[in-house]
Amino acid sequence: MEEFLVISASASRAELERFVEQNPGLTITCTLSADHSYPHREQCVANGVITADNCFDHQAIIDMVLHVGAWKHCVRTQSTTHIFDDRLILRQDFTEAITPLVQQDDFDLIVWSVDTASPTQIRYSPGVIGRLLYDQTDSALGELHFRNDTTPAQPLQLLQCGYPLGYTLSPRGAETLLARCLPFSSLPVRYFDEADNVWANTWHFIEMARHYPSLRAFITQPLLGVFPYDVRRKDDTGHFWRAFTYLCARHSRCIFDGGALPGRAA
Questions:
Q1: Which of 3, 35, 224, 226 could covalently link to 112 via disulfide, CB atoms 3.0 to 4.6 Å apart?
Q2: 15-22, Cβ contacts within 8 angstroms, sequence gap of 24 or more
Q3: Does any domain span residue 35?
Q4: In the chain, how many H helices and how many E strands?
Q5: Domain holding 34: CATH number?
Q6: Total number of domains constituting the chain
């Protein structure tokens, strides 16, 4: 059994409607959307979702609660769960492309779309580790070509990545993330294997990244989902900020999150 779950950090249904319009033929079985008036930090602490010293801002808490809700849904239904950010444009053969990977039933998590502002670290083979750098499609024509691409998706072992915009969880993987990530704290995460640099733990995906090396975690190449061009253009300032803070981190020994996710208001 499989679930196709869309997450929307917007309280409006407009984003969900756009997702359906941009991805015709995909059957959505569940949606999770946010009411920006909640959750309150105090509630999250009381419920054991975050620690008292957690430094997530309000938007980060909303995003975290939505993704934790998706993980719990995966465990509750005991279904392989495909989790979509509502901004994504997927390859039209997404279902066919992911099927041979999930049928192997030997994974915890498979990332197939990621925030391309950050590099991705993978293990090619025992003893061989590398990084993947992405250049997001920059035009409507590029999006059309992407939608029509049928290049077979290959799984590579995932060691670290930025915000996963689309990923698939097995029930075992969801249970493991819940057990290891909750409660979310402010404990920093080493940035790749750089001993003198760490990620400030300001968003749920940074805590997720801590655990990939000990999971059966993979990322597909090529990616199977990208941002629409109009959203990507709005991301330029945010991505500049991430790059700037990365350079600052060479001196401050800390990688700071840019404060807002691509395409989201702070």
A1: 224
A2: 15/86, 15/87, 16/86, 18/86, 19/84, 19/86, 19/87, 19/88, 22/88, 22/89, 22/90, 22/228
A3: yes
A4: 9, 13
A5: 3.90.550
A6: 1
